[in-house]
Amino acid sequence: VAPTTPVCEVPSSAMTGTVVELSCKETEGSPPSEYQWYKNGVALLEKTGTGSIRATNITYTMNKKSGTLLFNTVTKNDTGEYFCEASNGIGLSQKCSVKRMQV
């Protein structure tokens, strides 16, 4: 079953230095969807404990299975327009509407 449009929860504002979690969920897709977050139209990298993409400026953890995007300490650089995309390899991937987070 192709995924439906996911529901995204993005706080409209956040205090610098706080922990912020963005969530994305859709329940119709079978097999379960994987979620990809975007900031200002650019796909966010999935940071893993090892590997070459371990950039020092990545301040978040993205979980493609649960759809969460967790910022351990948000900074002004994290201000932007966020949306997520659900896909499970069946039908078209679905995106939620863009939401702006101001830090």
TrEMBL record:
Provide one Gene Ontology cellular component: plasma membrane
Family, according to the entry, reads as follows:
Belongs to the immunoglobulin superfamily.
Predominant cellular place of this UniProt entry's protein = other
Coiled-coil positions: none
Example GO biological process term? leukocyte cell-cell adhesion
Location of the protein in the cell: Cell junction, Tight junction; Cell membrane
The Ig-like domain extends over: 3-103
Annotated gene: Jam2
- Name-wise, this protein is JAM2 protein
Name the keywords, alphabetized.
Cell junction, Cell membrane, Disulfide bond, Immunoglobulin domain, Membrane, Signal, Tight junction, Transmembrane, Transmembrane helix
- Quote the InterPro entries the UniProt record gives: Ig-like_dom, Ig-like_dom_sf, Ig-like_fold, Ig_sub, Ig_sub2, JAM2
